[in-house]
Amino acid sequence: MYHTMDEFLTEWTYESDSTQKILDLLNDDSLSTRVSEGERSLGFLAWHIVISVHEMMSRVGLEFNAPHHDATLPTTAKEIAEGYRQTNMALREAIRTQWSDAKLSEKHDMYGEMWSNATTLNVLVKHQIHHRGQLTMLMRQAGLSMIGVYGPSREEWASYGGEIPE
Ligand code: NI
Predict the structure, then answer these.
(1) How far is the CA of 4 from the centre of ligand 1 (A)?
(2) How far apart are CA 106 and CA 55, in angstroms?
(3) Does pLDDT of 165 surpass 80?
(4) C-alpha 126 to ligand 1 mean position (Å)
(5) CA–CA separation, 132 vs 126, rounded Å?
(6) Are 41 and 142 in contact (CB under 8 A)?
(7) Residue-range domain boundaries for the chain
(8) Cα 106 to Cα 29, 60, 64, 115, 132, distances in angstroms
(9) How far is the CA of 46 from the centre of ligand 1 (A)?
(10) Cα–Cα dist 138/152, whole Å
(11) What pTM value is reported for the model?
(12) Which CATH number fits domain 5-159: 2.40.128.10, 3.40.50.1820, 1.20.120.450, 3.40.50.10230?
C-alpha cells in the first residue's frame, strides 16, 4: 500500500516503462492473435491496458488527456503504443500537479465499493501487471520477441550465456 505519492510514482515509473517497452514490440500482424477462437484478441487486450488507466483514474477525479474507455480499438500497433505513451505522460503530470499525499486517504465509489485512492492506485498497478502477463503470452504465440520485466526473457538469458531447458 502506498503512503506517499512518491512511493506510487517510483513503482508506476518502473511498471509503466516496462509496459511501454512491451507495447512498442507489437506489430500490426500480431493484433489478431488469440489463445483460441472466441477469446479476446491481443490487440483488444493491449488496448484494454491503455484505456483502463483513464477509465479508473477519472473515476477518482483526476483530470488528464488520454484515450477514454469507449475509444475505438485502433487498427495499428503504433496507435496502441502511442495511446499508452500519451496516457502515461498525462497521468504522471496530473498526479504531480493535482495530487498530494493527503489525497491518498480520500475515498470514492469504485465499482460499488468505497476505495481509498491508495487502494485505487494499488489496483491500477496490479490490473496492468495482470493483463501485461496475459499479453506477453499472446505475444509469444504471435512469434514476437520479448524483453524481461522482473528477470531476463528467454532470449536475454540466452544472450548472457544461460542454458535454456528443453
Ligand atoms: Ni481488465
Answers:
(1) 25
(2) 18
(3) no
(4) 10
(5) 10
(6) no
(7) 5-159
(8) 43, 9, 19, 8, 28
(9) 10
(10) 18
(11) 0.93
(12) 1.20.120.450
Cα 136 to ligand 1 centroid, rounded to whole Å = 15
Please say if the pLDDT value at position 164 is more than 80.
Answer: no
Q: How far is the CA of 48 from the centre of ligand 1 (A)?
A: 7
DSSP state of 117: H
Structure confidence at residue 161 (pLDDT) = 87
Radius of gyration of the chain from Cα atoms? 17
Residue pair 87/47 in contact (Cβ under 8 Å)? The answer is no
Cα of 82 vs centre of ligand 1, distance in Å, is: 19
> What pairing do the DSSP bridges indicate for beta strands 113-116 and 107-110?
antiparallel
Distance (angstroms) between ligand 1 centre and the Cα of 158 equals 32
pLDDT tens by residue, 72-123? 999 999 999 999 999 999 999 999 999 999 999 999 999 999 999 999 999 9
Q: Residue 140 has which C-alpha cell?
A: 509469444
What's the gap in Å between 127 CA and the centre of ligand 1? 6
- As a residue count, the chain comes to 166
Pair 95, 13: CB distance under 8 Å: no
* Contact between residue 69 and residue 52 where contact means Cβ atoms under 8 Å apart: yes
